[in-house]
Specification:
Pnp Oxidase, Chain A; binds flavin mononucleotide; 6 helices; about 220 residues; alpha+beta; six-stranded antiparallel beta barrel
């Protein structure tokens, strides 16, 4: 097999982050990751980033290879960030075996990125219930219909599964949460903030959890 070759089209794609220079400073991160992350998330929302709560979640598969996919961050607390999924999905199985993950928010249009790395645990059942209550009926039916990440023969079969679920819950107003569906929380050991700057001399600040707070380190870009 030939190694990957450079493509002229791709090789010429280059954005210089020369817009208004927003300096990312050690001082701004002194109070820990949460205030900083919340202010950047607010800026991403204000800046019109599409799905600003989307993050690329990396887990470790049974084969030892990293596996990534996008999920939506649905909660934030002093202990970490939460997302919801099927506990029997690929990621659910990975996290049961190896409860560690990395998650990256990519906000390319405002030249920012934030990466969390840490330990993963299930959120309490009551917290999953609370989020489930906010999900529209269609999303609830979808969660019941899909054995996420398992193979299926055809789209027709999947649509048939949805029809069965619709029939099953036809007379139920408040569709309950499937037991195999709920939240995970990533409790970060490190959080890295990245701000694009000119000439590829970007700002990178990494916060590392210590016994009594956060160690703040600037990294070379
Ligand atoms: C923008 C976006 C948001 C997504 N949000 C979620 C989510 O919050 N939870 C989820 O289980 N899957 C979500 N998905 C689908 C996942 O990326 C993935 O396909 C699915 O969870 C199965 O992954 P797995 O087989 O690795 O478990 C999202 C996909 C996209 C593109």
């Amino acid at each position: 097999m030939a190694p990957a070759r450079n493509s002229d089209d791709l090789a010429h794609m280059r954005v210089d982050y020369s817009g208004p220079a927003v300096e990312l400073t050690e001082d701004a991160c002194a109070a820990g990751w949460r205030p900083m992350f919340e202010s950047w998330l607010a800026a991403a929302i204000e800046g019109g980033v599409s799905e600003p709560n989307a993050m690329v979640l990396a887990t470790i598969g049974d084969d030892g290879l990293p596996a990534t996919r996008t999920v939506l961050c649905k909660g934030l607390s002093d202990t970490g960030i939460a997302f919801y999924t099927n506990y029997e999905s690929g990621k659910g199985r990975h996290l049961a075996a190896r409860p560690v993950a990395s998650a990256t928010f990519v906000w390319a249009s405002i030249a920012r990125q934030v990466t969390f790395r840490g330990d993963v645990s299930r959120v309490p059942e009551a917290v999953s219930d609370e989020y489930w209550e906010q999900r529209p009926r269609g999303a609830r039916l979808g969660a019941w219909a899909s054995e996420q990440s398992n193979p299926i023969g055809s789209r027709t079969e999947l649509d048939a599964k949805l029809s069965q679920v619709e029939e099953r819950f036809a007379k139920v107003d408040d569709i309950p949460r499937p037991l195999g569906w709920g939240g995970f929380e990533i409790t970060p050991r490190t959080v890295e903030f990245w701000q694009g700057r000119t000439n590829r001399l970007h700002d990178r600040i990494r916060l590392t959890r210590t016994t009594d707070g956060w160690d703040v380190t600037r990294l070379q870009p």
